[in-house]
Write a structure and sequence with these properties.
- With 238 residues, this protein is of the alpha/beta class.
- 21% of the residues lie in helices and 27% in strands.
- It has three helices and twelve strands; from the N terminus they run E-H-E-E-E-E-E-H-E-E-E-E-E-H-E.
- Strands 1, 2, 6, 7, 8, 9, 10, 11 and 12 form a nine-stranded mixed β-sheet that branches. It has a three-stranded mixed β-sheet with strand order 4-3-5, with no helix packed on it.
- The longest helix has 17 residues, at 115-131.
Length: 238
Amino acid sequence: MLSHTLNPATSPLIRSDGQPVGWAVSTALVDYPAAVQAMETRVAAIAAGEASELIWLLEHPPLYTAGVSSRDADLLDAGRFPVHRTGRGGQFTYHGPGQRVAYVMLDLNQRGRDVRAFVRGLEQWLIGALAEFGVEAGARDGRVGVWVERRGPGWGREDKIAAIGVKVRKWISFHGVSLNVEPDLAHFSGIVPCGIAEHGVTSLVDLGVLATLDDADAALKTSAARIFGALASEHPPI
């Protein structure tokens, strides 16, 4: 069975001082190297006490990223899209239009200094957002990310709908999550997503939920407030 253990009333990731997290949304496609540099700059500023925490929502042009655990054999079509080697955890993943990427720059010094609890919080954030659309999703032991169980033909198959890949430096998090709203799922065929070949990839629209990115953003914001506490709108870093 898929787990669904969202309990926002007892989230361990809400700051005791109530300081809000910045919430920024980019409306145009964002170049991946530029986004990474912007994250690096913001994380350094958070660590120095010169900037507030930030959750940054955006889309990238089609590309593949390789985490620190990636295997070259899992890049099936190296010439299809640009490939970016990155310092986040995890293996290969795809980013592209129709997928909401959320970069999460939080000060874990203020949120328990527990990386496992942080990753569980990211899972529950995504699970809660999907529940806003009536989609039952969950985490699975031994498989990072968020999964749904398919109904009808192929019943019992579990597909991945959201990926997680993070890095922590000086207890400041960066990189984050990606939620498939309406990406071109064929683009995932150039990699073995997250090194897991025996499961598929899905999206909200693929599941029959006719959601837009704006709809997904609203659900993510509602769920984020339950997991991370108060949010305050701000401009994207670039």
